[in-house]
Amino acid sequence: MKRISSVAAAAALLASIVTGQTAFAADPIKIGVPVGLSGANSVVAPSVVQSAQLAVDEINAKGGILGRQVSLEVADDGSGAAGAQKAFDSLIFDKKVNALISMETSAARNAGLPIVSRGKVPFIYTSFYEGRSCNRYMYVDAWVPDQQVAPIVDYFMKDKHAKTFFLIGSDYAFGRGMLDFTKSYIEKKGGKVVGNEYLPMDGSDWTPIISKLQAAKPDAIITSTAGGAPNVTLTKQLRAAGVKLPYGNLAVDEGTAKSMGADAEGIYISGSYVTNIDTPANHQFLAAMQKRFGADLKTPNDLSVPEYEAIYLYKAAVEKAGSFDTAKVIPALAQVSFDGPRGTIRMDKQRHTPLTMYLGQVQADGSVKVIGSFKNVDPGDQCPSLK
């Protein structure tokens, strides 16, 4: 009888495998991380991957998600549209990931979203961006212009007595979207934009634009470039040209600022994360990152910390849904929260999240001195048609 039962059981198992009905509990849950390991985002991408690795390590050490371990599938999107199409397609249809969680350039995000829709995979976008990008499968746990622009502009007008502004950006969705919003806000507050110039995302010679800046003689400069390399080249050339105006950068993160060295000193930034946030949760996170990566640690920043938190948000949504099924996870993402380094993150405002924002200035050692903080800033009207 035992032999017959064993044969029957084996036959049943084989049949279920052939029909695709068996899911082994040991099979890992796959989280896809399409990110710019090359191209404009290559300066910051390693820190994003490290944050993802820490989150997965911690989750796996505590039993995984619904009893299943988690693995990362990292793909280079080249920081642009063509690379993103390949990366998204490979992760969704070849690797068959359960979710996509990552920061990317807006060009990469926009190119990948149709593939997300086709694959019906949850996507948590963890990059600050120009706002109002909406998709039934996407949530965002990073800031938008409605949360980020006002602290810098208001400070320049009030404390630096700036009335005229010169705007410089990378010529793509993020650069133009951020500066369009900034221009409108400056004019609404009674200021004037005396220059608004762009360079292609992969451009590196800012000399003609800097000449226009110097001729316009503004009171302050605000920039919005692709995160990473363009920040480095623009800032270096501004410093070499002797530009000493109040300088607000809408795209630089703390990690990139540290990589700039002395060139970054004095830059004003506005964001939802800086390493010197004095809370137990942030201290615990930083200690865990240092222990995990040691001398190889990349500075945690406003592009990498949302990645860490988003993986936990996905975990919470799956556990609330009691399933990895996309149709159940998507609504659950708006109902869960995670207490992370930035505080409590809940993506319930039209698939975006209220955030505490910080106005800071980069110091000589690359750290950011916080000048002011603004609690629970609402993201504004982002995706009213999505429920």
Automatic annotation (TrEMBL):
Q: Does the keyword Transcription regulation apply?
A: no
Q: Say yes or no: keyword Protein biosynthesis present.
A: no
Among InterPro entries, the record links this protein to: Leu-bd, Peripla_BP_I
- Span of the secretion signal? 1-25
Name the Pfam families on file.
Peripla_BP_6
- What are the entry keywords? Signal
Show where the Leucine-binding protein domain sits: 28-366
**Assigned protein family:** Belongs to the leucine-binding protein family.
Do you know which PANTHER family this protein is assigned to?
ALIPHATIC AMIDASE EXPRESSION-REGULATING PROTEIN, PTHR47628
Name of the protein in question: Amino acid/amide ABC transporter substrate-binding protein (HAAT family)
